[in-house]
Write a structure and sequence with these properties.
Elements lengths: L2 E3 L17 H7 L26 E2 L7 E5 L4 E3 L2 E7 L1 H9 L3 H20 L4 E8 L10 E7 L4 E6 L5 E6 L1 E3 L16 H19 L4 H11 L3 H10 L15 E5 L8 H5 L4 E5 H8 L3 E3 L5 E3 L5 H7 L11 H13 L4
Parallel strand pairs: 3-6
Antiparallel strand pairs: 1-10, 2-3, 4-5, 5-9, 6-7, 8-9, 11-12, 13-14
Helix pairs in contact: 2-3, 4-5
């Protein structure tokens, strides 16, 4: 991956916001439509709770917009950047039963992953004020908020711990803008195998002559993001389909019928998906577990009993599969499962 550095870099202090723009005005300035904000239950579009507390905004083909704390900016030889992981934040919020905050952080995390995978620039609203200090500190308070005029790029996303790096004024070379970047390689051989498969599938999508809308939807589905993940989160009430785990950062939107064996309609079909924790997703993907037509767990003879006892839930899916899900599960048992 080759990047070039634009001339828009400035020192950090020069970027400090000095006025407090309303978030609705910042979103509009970034090119997004804010008409739906008028449907606020408060009667005031500016304070529509559906939008005004969000950290990430994405709308159609418009550039995504995200909010970054000015106080967290860093600089190096390449310019201004920010780098950290949202996963501890999500985990902390979930432990404190702050589910709304955890969902907002999860949406930002998913948006950063999509921006990295698609190599698309994002807009950034810089926020200055009081950042919450730890899990017991006072709530954060934005004193100043402005839209940065420069584009930013997510240049790295580590799928082992969620650490991302987003840089100001960084662009991908023109010849690379149509390519789609895959997640960073992982140390585990199972994840190495998965990463290589994702790379091939995303490169294939980049070469195909399909609409940008269709391509974006398929990229999201291949990464377990976007509408595909949202539908699974809704269906399984933001819990693992088998274990009931509610830690959003480790829940994966898994395809039942593998991507390589599915057509585009099946790849985008939420019925061809299960929301699973990362360990169950890996076992399901490699054919070491599957589920019967009633959702009962079936374990491969390859998986040692002691390993199965450590890794697997005692029963199976928490809901009986739908008719379409049963068809997909039958294909999984026939083509993926290693009896």
């Amino acid at each position: 991956m080759t990047i070039s550095i634009d001339t828009v870099h400035a020192d950090i202090e020069a970027l400090r916001p000095t006025s407090k723009r309303k978030i609705i005005d910042v979103v509009k300035e970034a090119g997004q439509n804010v008409e739906d904000w008028a449907s606020s239950t408060t009667g005031n579009p500016d304070t529509n709770p559906k939008y005004c507390y969000e950290w990430y905004f994405e709308q159609g083909d418009n550039q995504p917009l995200l909010c970054l704390w000015f106080e967290s900016l860093q600089s190096d030889a390449l310019g201004v950047f920010q780098s950290y992981s949202l996963w501890p934040t999500i985990k902390s919020m979930e432990s404190q039963k702050n589910h709304a905050g955890a969902k907002r952080a999860d949406r930002l995390d998913n948006g950063l992953q999509r921006a990295f995978a698609k190599k698309i620039p994002v807009r950034v609203a810089l926020v200055a004020g009081r950042m919450r200090a730890g899990s017991e500190g006072d709530s954060s308070k934005a004193d100043y908020r402005e839209l940065d005029h420069a584009e930013w790029m997510v240049t790295d996303f580590n799928h082992t711990d969620g650490t991302f790096t987003i840089r100001r004024g960084v662009k991908f070379d023109k010849g690379a803008t149509q390519a789609v970047s895959a997640p960073a390689p992982l140390a585990d051989p199972v994840d190495d195998w998965r990463t290589n498969s994702v790379v091939e599938d995303l490169e294939d999508l980049a070469r195909r002559e399909i609409s940008q809308t269709t391509r974006a939807a398929l990229v999201d589905a291949r990464l377990g993001q976007g509408a595909f993940r949202t539908a699974l989160m809704r269906h399984w009430e933001e819990q693992c389909a088998a274990s009931g785990c509610t830690v959003l950062s480790i829940l994966r939107a898994s395809h039942i019928l593998p991507w390589r064996d599915a057509n585009d309609e099946e790849r985008l079909d939420p019925e061809n998906g299960l929301l699973l924790t990362a360990n169950l997703d890996a076992l399901f993907d490699r054919g070491l577990i599957t589920f019967d037509e009633s959702g009962h767990l079936i374990t491969s003879s390859i998986l040692a009993p002691e390993s199965a006892a450590q890794l697997l839930p005692p029963k199976g899916l928490r809901r009986r599969p739908s008719e379409r899900q049963r068809r997909y599960l039958q294909l999984h048992r026939e083509t993926v499962f290693q009896a």
